[in-house]
Amino acid sequence: MADFILNWLVVSPAFAVPFALAALGLIVAEKSGVLFLGAEGFMLVGAMTGAGALITMGGHPLLALLVAMLAAALVSLIFAFLVVVLRVDQIIAGLSMVFLCQGLTSLISTQQGWTNRPISGLDPIALWPLSELPILGRLLFHQDAVFYATIAIFVAFHWISNRSLLGLRLKAVGENPDAADAAGVSVALYRFGAVLCGAALIGLAGAYLSVGVAKIWVDGMAGGRGWIAIALVIFARWQPWRALAGAVLFGCIEALIPRIAAAGIQVPQYFMLMTPYVATLAVMIWAALLRSPRTGQPAALGTPFVREERR
Amino acid sequence: MAEPLAALDAAPPAPSRQSSRMTVEIRQTSPAGQRILIRGAGLLIGLAISVAILAWAGVGLGNLANEFIYAIFSDSRSVASVLVQMAPLLIAGLAACVAFRVRFWNIGIEGQMIFGSIAATLVAITDFGPPALRLVVMLMAAALGGMGWIFVPVALKLKLGISEVVSTLLLNYVALNFLLHLLYGSWQDPKSSFPHSEQYDAIERLSPIGWENVTLALPLALLLALILWWALNISRFGFFTRFVHANPKMAKAIGIPVLGVTCAAALLSGALAGVAGFAISAGIEYRMTQSFFFGYGFSGILIAFLARNNPIGVIVVAFFVAILFVAGQSLQVFYQIPGAIVQLIQAIVVISVAAAEFFIRHRLKWTK
Q: Staple B187 to which of A181, A230, B37, B182, CB 3.0 to 4.6 Å?
């Protein structure tokens, strides 16, 4: 039993990282007041370009991750242009982006022959001497570069959003764009920047799925993780540390599914595969039942900023 | 006396008026002709981008004209295959349409289709009810199945304020896994042991109407469109939905049963989606397969969006989307273009039309 739990916990971080990065990307974008439903699509873009970059260019996997982030940010320019400049309904634009990315990644990867091609992935880096610690060493200090980067990104975001002018202005744009505009903050610029950075993080989350975990690209491999991340952000009330806790929880749940099958416990396979989605719903219901007076949702979330209608 | 003048001279110069800039004005109204023109332009731009992408993927302009126009309208069999494809698309479009009329974002059409088909197949497998009424019972079961599956998100939204966008979507994955559980388990075809249900008996199929392979699914879909047109445009319920669509708070204030109207429209949407699943299983494939629902969720949303939530418009748009589906299948066979191209083209069209609507609501002006 102890072995089972240890083996389970050791693989959990690899499952938690995509949720954590995607949720943080969503928080970055939505802090600016842009409702970002396209996460699933941008994860696919990241996953496909990550695998594609590794197949075509070779080189270090970290380079492929960087390419994937750039690609997701590039595609998110379309979304940002639609919702910030053209003021398209953010639900329609977000949903369309998901299906655009699904179609685009499937088409490009088939045309280029990237689908189902095994790739060399990321190797774990042992942080000696911490990696020699019992249990904790294997759990926290024998992971790949993205795992360490995720923690660094969370710390950096925490500092930026609470301690820097940039972070405060971002919050202002999401909470009260009228006031921010009157104070001389460019709402459009901040929203563009937030969407781009958010999409890049979500792209990294997707690329980690293909380059870091699966070491292969298959169509639609994000498998709803983008939607789960959206639910996580609502549950986390747009607070990064709560989102990280939620991501760890979901990472553990997802890591448990193959473990249970491998341990020979008889549970209907497809009911096991439902658990992440059912757990997500359960978490959303729980968060709603708490009925906290502060949902943490940026006040201007989902409403386009129209200076001509400013009060 | 000279001193104030000197102060004026020292003042910074007035801003230069030479540089012109573009300003955005909000239009109060937009004439109908202009609206049609702008949306049409958006549609054309979207289609042009799609053609360019297809050309990149290796399908030239001549081949495209062949696949989309000649191959489809040259013989009655191809026209019939478009009409066959149109029936479930039309019903899925209606499902999206009625939900969007009360601003309920039903993204779970595919999940509701799955449960509609599961319920209908359950009736077919167990031979429930008198044979003469079997199809009617299957239809009712499908509607109830779809309605049951949307009930959870409706309750969560209305009672707890949980976003239906996320909950309906997550339930799609749950429904898909339940479908696979059945098809790889107890409902596997005993004859071929393939992962699909056993074939429906003859009385469990929507019968052909006597022209090519078009079945009763199409008249059923058209009838539903007419009923929904009446419900949304003539009936009191439809009148209420307009208020809820325009402004739920105001609607509540003037005494419209917002909760009831929203609930009824959302449940109706689920029921229609369930019937769309039934239309595929009983009208096209004559069994429940493992991917019969694929792509209908987004297509339903697209159809309702382009038809501006008007059931009669849904009929027209569903016909064109059906052409896209059929042409997509032949592109897959003859040019090895993945089926996802259908989804891609639909997304591009939605995006370009939605983007064009900017010019309906705004006016650009050069200010000197």
A: B182
Give the span between the Cα atoms of A229 and A177, in whole angstroms: 25
Judged against a pLDDT cut of 80, whether residue B76 lies above it is answered with yes
- Number of Cβ within a 10 Å radius of residue B152: 18
pLDDT tens, A140-175? 787 888 999 999 999 999 999 999 999 999 999 999
Domain boundaries, chain A: 2-120+145-295
Contacts of A309 in chain B (CB under 8 A): 26
Distance CA B99, CA B83 (A): 25
A70-84, B182-196, B239-253: least confident range = B182-196
- Tell me, yes or no, if B212 comes closer than 8 A to chain A by beta carbon: no
- Evaluate whether B245 touches B103 at the Cβ level (below 8 Å): yes
Q: How far is CA A199 from CA A30, A168, A264, A280, B156, in A?
A: 11, 20, 39, 22, 29
Query: What are the phi and psi torsion angles at B108 (to 5°)?
Result: -100, 25
Which helix (H) or strand (E) segment holds residue B364: the answer is strand B362-367
**Whole-number mean pLDDT of chain B?**
89
| DSSP output for B234-270 | TSHHHHHHHHHHH-HHHHHHTT--HHHHHHHHHHHHH
Decide: B264 and B132 in contact? Cβ < 8 Å.
no
Distance from CA of B129 to the nearest CA of A (A): 31
Q: Residue ranges of the domains in chain B?
A: 34-59+342-363, 86-336
Residue of B226, B254, B220, B221 lying closest to B240 (CA atoms): B254
Query: Of A195, A225, A169, A270, which Cα lies nearest the Cα of A36?
Result: A195
Q: Indicate the helix (H) or strand (E) that contains A143.
A: strand A142-143
Determine the Cα–Cα distance for residues B149 and B140; give it in Å rounded to an integer: 14
Find the residue in B nearest to A97 (Cα). B347
Which residue among A88, A99, A306 places its CB closest to the CB of B343? A99
A288 touches chain B (CB under 8 A): yes
Give the class (CATH, top level) of B86-336: mainly alpha
Q: Shortest Cα distance from B271 to chain A (angstroms)?
A: 22
Q: What angle do CA A292, A164, A166 make, to 5 degrees?
A: 90
Which tokens go with A151? 């923690």
The answer to whether the peptide bond before residue A129 is cis (omega within 30 degrees of 0) is: yes
Contacts of B298 in chain A (CB under 8 A): 95, 99
Residue pLDDT, tens place only, B130-168? 888 899 999 999 999 999 999 999 999 998 888 899 999
Q: Distance between CA A90 and CA B121 in Å, rounded?
A: 38
Q: Give the angle B207-B213-B214 at the CA atoms, nearest 5°.
A: 65
Query: CA A58, B344, B181, A249: dihedral to nearest 10 degrees?
Result: 60
Query: What's the CATH code, domain A2-120+145-295?
Result: 1.10.3470
* pLDDT per position as a tens digit, A205-259: 999 999 988 899 999 899 899 999 999 998 888 999 999 999 999 999 988 888 8
Q: Is A96 on the interface with B (CB under 8 A)?
A: yes
How far off is chain B from A105, nearest CA to CA, in Å?
Answer: 9
What pLDDT is attached to residue A121? 79
- In B293-322, which positions are buried (b, 16+ CB within 10 angstroms) versus exposed (e)? bebbbbbbbbbbbbbebbbebbbebbbbbb
A interface mutation test: which of B166, B305, B308, B309 has the most A CBs within 10 A? B166
What's phi and psi for B57, nearest 5 deg? -80, 0
Three-class secondary structure of residue B215 per DSSP: strand
Closest C-alpha among B272, B159, B283, B273 to residue B213: B283
Locate A100 and state its tokens: 């655009």
Average pLDDT over residues A61-71: 94
